[in-house]
# Entry
Amino acid sequence: MAHGCGMLAPQGRTEHREPAITRQNVTHVTPKPIDADEPWMRGLHADTGYLLYRLGLRSGQLFNACLQESGLRLRHYAVLRFLAGSEGALQRELSARLGYDPSAIVGLVDDLEKQGLAERRPAPDDRRSRIVVLTESGRGFLRDTDEAGQRVTNELLGPLDPAEREALHALLLRIAEDRLN
# Structure
């Protein structure tokens, strides 16, 4: 059955349960358009860091809205996306690579396991350790969420033509590779 933003609900879910990151009672209000000529806005719009922050927040809000019916959040998606590019990872590696607190990773992986999207297995090189791996259900869920993610990106970058989008992505990637590693 299709769910928000064209995604399928994960299988294996038998009861409603809040994800590790609890939802807060948020009233969704459509903000009034911002008048860029307001003096306080001119100052904020001159600050690239602030613009990146606001766009990141908006991107997260839109993507989380797409994930809402599945019971997952953007942080869950990030774990799944990381696992899709690996043969599995220790939880401490997920924490370090994604920049999440180790205790948050435990809850995120618990959520993903309960929904059948990831599982913990003994590490091949150290049976005392457990790695987290993506399941086939997790791969299918990612295929659906990738489409939703592209729609969110298209909405955010709507004012840009394809060449501008490519240039923006290249610049952001260069910054991320330098500053987030």
In short: The radius of gyration is 18 Å. Confidence is low (pLDDT under 50) at residues 11-26.
